[in-house]
Amino acid sequence: MRSVYMIVGKHPRMWVTAVMALSAILLYGGVNQLLEDRTVLTFSGVIQDKVVAIDPGHGGEDGGAKGTRGTQEKVVNLLIAKKVVDQLNQAGGKAILTRENEDNVSVGPWSQRSELTKRVEKAQGANALVYVSIHANSFPMAPACQGPQTFYQPGSAEGKRLALHIQKEMTKRVGNKDGRQAKAEDYFVLRMTKCPAVMVETGFLSNAAEEALLLRDDYQEKLAQGIATGIARYLGGEPAEEPKGAATDQAPGGFIPEVDRAVSPGLLDS
Ligand SMILES: [Zn+2]
What we know:
Layout: H1 2-10, H2 12-36, H3 44-47, E1 51-56, H4 73-90, E2 94-97, H5 112-125, E3 130-137, E4 149-152, H6 157-174, E5 183-184, H7 188-192, E6 197-204, H8 208-214, H9 217-235, H10 265-269
Parallel strand pairs: 1-2, 1-3, 3-6, 4-5
Antiparallel strand pairs: 4-6
Helix pairs in contact: 4-9, 6-9
The site of zinc ion has 9 residues, from loops.
């Protein structure tokens, strides 16, 4: 301690300058970090009264993918979707869920087509500006596959902008070790909606560690915050930057995951 006093005593001005410079650097970093970490609440201006449809994928008779310990995709989807709606509405939005519980949405004999059609009709009836369908992935052939990924309809510039924002905001909050990027993919539900639509795969239930994370309330909250903030940036008209070096979504081991075939067009268009 003595030596420190001696140095300060010899060069007081130098020390004041150094401390001021350091404070300025820390303050600048802190403000920058705050701007980066903006939550959806800071976007209330652009979300105000905007109708957004959040679709918890699967539900009712359709459980969706199954996790390594038996987690049903539909359950996780609904939990995350509810959190997204809460966050948007706390910021003044008018987000709606296409399903609110585990009942089938369509009436009469169940089919995947009638179920998806009913949900899109619900969103269109409410004049939703965007449609975000929430899913969880599964690829048991490569259990190391992990991370969130967002899909948009090929040729939809607005869908792409929405997907890029959501992908970036999710990645910022939960990471993405496999480097998954927003990707164009032809899905029935994306093709049917008149407004820009995306499908969000929040993570892989076939990866035991990620399955455990997806069941955690705080992790669901982070994903929901990423999705809601991405939607807010889209609604605010922010341009989305293409990811640098647009990496592949190729899974480790050279596999390309067959993402959520249950809602793929192949199954429904046959
Ligand atoms: Zn799904």
